[in-house]
Amino acid sequence: MRPAHARVQGGVLVHVAPSLMKRLKQHFHRFDFGVSAIFGMNGNVWVYCTPPGAIETDELNDVAMPIATEEGDLGHAEYVPTAEERERVCRVRNCLVALDAAYIAVSPTSVQAAYDASVKAGVGVREMLLPEVRLQICQTILEHTAGENDRSSRAMGAHTSYDGPGQ
To answer: pTM for this one?
Structure first.
């Protein structure tokens, strides 16, 4: 008989400032590059490698659910991530550290933007923790989010000038 709580393994727990955590509809997120994360409102983010074939998407509820075997086991307890998968987990961890250091809101979108910026810049996982590299990654994120905000405000017909009362 298994205990009521699950054993946590194969990932890393990262703590960021709780005030930076963005409230989400779904706090479990699976990234396209094979890494998953659980975003806690208390500032804890659990980052782990998604075992191949371990997630089934419930399209009706837009929820990812683990697939259980006949024995009731989740089936991926003995899964050992490859070096490349562990490197991706570490890259996400370093992205979270960079976002926290720059006081940028933590959400799946900002983590994805930081990950993409670090890969595009050709930065190694270890070099991501250097202050000048973190600054470069965070500037790219801010430019990316500022561009999205400009597009969304134009799409909604927002006015950028104030005519004053009664004018």
So the answer is: 0.72
